[in-house]
């Protein structure tokens, strides 16, 4: 799963780098909350800090990757100024994603990024150190008590694996005709997804609690579930497009029945319950905002995982049909789409 779960690399028209506007919009809308979280951290720590260690988990590759980093560095600089701290602390930034992420494209952006920092705030590569830390965030990319601020945007709804409970004891598919939790999915499909999310999110929180210095901050955005029985969500439309292709003979029914997205959109209550059960981190701030999706950003997000299951041959056809399917349903799509922001600190 870790080999295929990544956004579409490169810089062509369909790449994630060119199609991450939605995630950018989410980021811009939550920037005030991110700044507030950093302000809290700075007020408690800046007077003594010599080096602030920051991580961005699930950074992908594209313009958004450095957007979050830039905003975090900007906020720290501003707080130094507000607190009359003349010697800026060093900042070490770790960009984390799966091993298959296109880290090389990010490295190519670094010279101009350092130059921009130098020009805007006199901080270049001598006081800000950006490195990659590949590996799953469900594991432990960082040592104990080493990180001051951890950020993760729109990545946590990717599960570590397809839930194991999606087949019967006889090995038959439980979620026929769906690729995620659909309107016709039986209850045990929902339970299997929730169970996997619970395990993954619990591992994520425990790992961050070990990595964060006592009292320090974790800031997360993700796409939550919306309970609206009439509206479609993005995954419904992906599934409907697949079914059309089965009826046209372009995809085998068996291939569709054995395909399930390793993706889960939790409800606000599910997220809260898992955090409260874990206890190592406490909620400082929780909010939702509403935005819209575009078909092209779906391709940049889902293409690698579709290609791995169905093969390269149908990819173009699939995403063209998906775009055509989205237009008539736009009104019924969960629009605007919710996004959830969470600011936590280590207790
Ligand atoms: C939709 S992108 C979001 C990227 C970026 N943070 C943004 O806001 O535009 C999700 C990213 O999470 C990464 N990801 C998924 N599961 C992961 C895991 N277990 N560990 C680290 N990264 C993961 C994917 O490879 C992908 O780059």
TrEMBL record:
Needed co-factor(s): Mg(2+)
InterPro entries noted in UniProt: MeTrfase_7, MeTrfase_capping, SAM-dependent_MTases_sf
One biological process term in Gene Ontology: methylation
Keywords, ordered alphabetically: Magnesium, Metal-binding, Methyltransferase, Transferase
SUPFAM superfamilies: S-adenosyl-L-methionine-dependent methyltransferases
GO terms of molecular function: metal ion binding; methyltransferase activity
Pathway of action: Alkaloid biosynthesis
Gene3D superfamilies referenced in this protein's UniProt entry, alphabetically: Methyltransferase, alpha-helical capping domain, Vaccinia Virus protein VP39
Superkingdom field: Eukaryota
Pfam family, one: Methyltransf_7
Family: Belongs to the methyltransferase superfamily. Type-7 methyltransferase family.
Protein name as annotated: Uncharacterized protein
């Amino acid at each position: 799963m870790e080999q295929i779960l990544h956004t579409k690399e490169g810089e062509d028209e369909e790449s994630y780098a060119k199609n991450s506007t939605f995630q950018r919009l989410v980021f811009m809308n939550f920037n005030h909350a991110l700044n507030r979280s950093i302000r809290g951290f700075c007020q408690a720590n800046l007077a003594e800090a010599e080096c602030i260690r920051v991580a961005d988990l699930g950074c992908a590759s594209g313009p958004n990757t450095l957007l979050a980093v830039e905003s975090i560095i900007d906020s720290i600089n501003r707080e130094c100024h507000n607190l009359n701290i003349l010697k800026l602390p060093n900042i070490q930034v770790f960009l984390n994603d799966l091993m298959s992420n296109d880290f090389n494209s990010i490295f190519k952006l670094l010279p101009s990024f350092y130059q921009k920092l130098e020009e805007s705030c006199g901080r270049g590569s001598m006081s800000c150190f950006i490195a990659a830390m590949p590996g799953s965030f469900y594991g432990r990319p960082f040592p104990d008590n080493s990180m001051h601020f951890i950020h993760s945007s729109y990545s946590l709804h990717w599960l570590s694996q397809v839930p194991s409970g999606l087949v019967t004891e006889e090995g038959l598919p439980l979620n026929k005709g769906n690729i995620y939790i659909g309107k016709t999915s039986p209850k045990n499909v929902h339970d299997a997804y929730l169970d996997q999310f619970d395990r993954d999110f619990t591992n994520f929180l425990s790992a961050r609690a070990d990595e964060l210095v006592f009292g320090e901050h974790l800031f997360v955005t993700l796409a939550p579930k919306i309970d609206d029985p009439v509206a479609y969500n993005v995954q419904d439309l992906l599934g409907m497009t697949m079914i059309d292709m089965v009826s046209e003979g372009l995809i085998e029914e068996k291939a569709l029945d054995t395909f399930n997205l390793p993706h889960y959109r939790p409800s606000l209550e599910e997220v809260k319950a898992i955090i409260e059960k874990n206890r190592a981190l406490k909620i400082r701030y929780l909010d939702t905002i509403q935005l819209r999706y575009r078909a092209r950003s779906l391709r940049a997000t889902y293409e690698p995982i579709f290609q791995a299951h169905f093969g390269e041959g149908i990819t173009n056809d699939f995403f063209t049909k998906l775009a055509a399917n989205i237009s008539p349903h736009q009104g019924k799509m969960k629009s605007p789409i919710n996004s959830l922001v969470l600011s936590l600190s280590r207790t």
